[in-house]
Design goal:
Bound molecules: pyridoxal-5'-phosphate
Oligomer: single chain
CATH class: Alpha Beta
CATH superfamily: Alanine racemase
Helix content: 25-40%
Radius of gyration: 16 Å
Distance between the termini: 28 Å
Strand content: 15-25%
Number of helices: 8
Length: 227
């Protein structure tokens, strides 16, 4: 079943997004076993993302052949477990995290590729910078020599208001384009989960993070927010 789901989604995104860009599919692997994850990789998944450091560590050596992303809320005291082990941290959501990440990465002579997380729906339950703070935060992040900002990440609010979601997606793409024209490192707009990825891709997302659509419902559902 996993292999079929992977192939179906890869087929659907093969044509790229509305801006003519290739779409990267990141499998969101929280609660999934190493066997399930390896099955997805065999079926064509190239990128996987955990949202808890403990799970990231537990599965690290048991999963083979994929780029490792970190997609969840990151506590500063757990940064050390990701140093040198992750290709992209999607959740650079506060200045304090950037400062600590800079320190740790510098000590390891490593550069952390990161996405600036934007709390696009201004939700209290989610972390990230507001769109208004986004530019200033981006400029501050760029000053850290061991942090490389590669783009933006957002999670859409859980809403049925299609027009509102569309407007939020488009404002993310607009901000993404604003920074992209002046910075060659910017290449990822990570936006879209199982329930909303088609809309996100239509509005210019080029990286989607899917769990349920690939692996089925989670046995012990976790909150979809950044916890
Ligand atoms: C769990 C998770 C996803 C995927 O959620 P699904 O609705 O199962 O596709 C995407 N992004 C983050 C940050 C997650 O924690």
């Amino acid at each position: 079943m996993i292999a079929e789901n992977v192939q179906k989604i890869l087929g659907e995104i093969a044509g790229g997004n509305s801006c003519g860009e290739k779409i990267t599919l990141v499998a969101a692997t929280k609660t999934r076993t190493p066997e399930e994850i390896n099955e997805a990789i065999s079926a064509g998944i190239t990128d996987i993302g955990e949202n808890k450091v403990q799970e990231f560590r537990d599965k690290y050596d048991l999963v083979h052949g994929a780029n490792r992303h970190f997609i969840g809320h990151l506590q500063t005291n757990k940064i050390k477990y990701l140093i040198g082990k992750t290709c992209l941290i999607h959740s650079l959501d506060r200045m304090e995290l950037a400062e600590e990440l800079q320190k740790r990465a510098e000590r390891a002579s490593w550069t952390a590729n990161c996405l600036l997380e934007i709390n696009i729906g201004s939700e209290l339950s989610k972390s990230g910078f507001s769109l208004e703070e986004g530019m200033h935060a981006y400029e501050q992040m760029r000053a850290f020599p061991n942090i490389c900002v590669r783009g933006l990440m957002a999670m859409l609010p859980n809403s049925q208001d299609f027009q509102q979601l569309r407007a939020l997606c488009l404002s993310m793409r607009q901000f993404y384009d604003t920074i992209r024209v002046q910075d060659r490192n910017i290449e990822h707009l990570s936006m879209g989960m199982s329930g909303d990825w088609r809309l996100c891709v239509e509005c210019g997302s080029n990286m989607i993070r899917l769990g349920t659509s690939l692996f089925g419902p989670r046995a012990y559902p976790q909150s979809p927010v950044n916890d």
